[in-house]
């Protein structure tokens, strides 16, 4: 929408935006290995690179043609946080961007039509989501929802019990990537005691789990409260790290992702409060697939696993997703075989628990029935829980309570 000040308001995920003269446009591209913004004319000539560096732009939000600025969210400070930045429209110094948001954490931005103000939905690992109004320079105007943790806040009785994670980095075993992790420890570690660990995994493309973002009283907090160390690591293939980090999974899923999770376990084994013989893995959806692949391919490192709603054969999953990462089955027949769990199922040695909603219309229940048959044919003992009527998200209080209790019961029986 063009305003009287020649300022453009954009949707959150616009990667192509025309300027008011309709002769120039801003285009987002990963051509140099990281998603950045470029200025082109309609003849296809690059006029300027507007942002640059070994970090990624999330989204272009506004263009102020009158004063010569673009406004965008990105990861220039750290991949674990999202901030609002501005950069000159002339592209004279693309490596120098100006950070506008002040608080460390995650910012979701919506600009007003006249681009004089913006709404900021913010959180970090210690702060529940807050919504505020700001001037274009980042100055706070007013709260729309302060959501302050005071005596009346719903989280107040439990806030002091929450465990805040430690953030850190590891080098991948092949020394090709830096891996970010979060480590949650029980509040009172007993000297000399060795604790069991649950690796909470997702691991799939276009996802990120290690962020400085509010998580609240979730399943991880419950696990830590029950005496487990919980570990999360974003392996290669996950998002917001550039193409060298994101592309190694292409045409071969479940290989480098598992290798990176093993790197995480090797690190855990060096910690004096971790029992190396009681490290398990738990994930849902792609995380369920990762739990199976980790148990089947790296059983020396993962001693027990919980796999929720897993993809087991990528030929059973949506083509619009699968072919983006595995190519067409006729072009990459070998990759579809090696990326399925079945060539490795015979290697299962540790305890495995699989659950799935029987009405799942995302990852079809057929994935699990095929797994059941394969494990039975291999004479592998495993545990199974099905949820009639439940879809992929496993929604509903009764379902969630039963599922969470069943997961903890599984790990308790094998690790305690």
From TrEMBL:
Name of the protein this chain belongs to: S9 family peptidase
TM regions (residue ranges): none
A Pfam family matched in the record: Peptidase_S9
Domain of life: Bacteria
Organism: Thalassotalea loyana
Dipeptidylpeptidase IV N-terminal domain mapped to chain residues: 2-128
Gene3D superfamilies: alpha/beta hydrolase, Dipeptidylpeptidase IV, N-terminal domain
Annotated ranges, domain Peptidase S9 prolyl oligopeptidase catalytic: 219-416
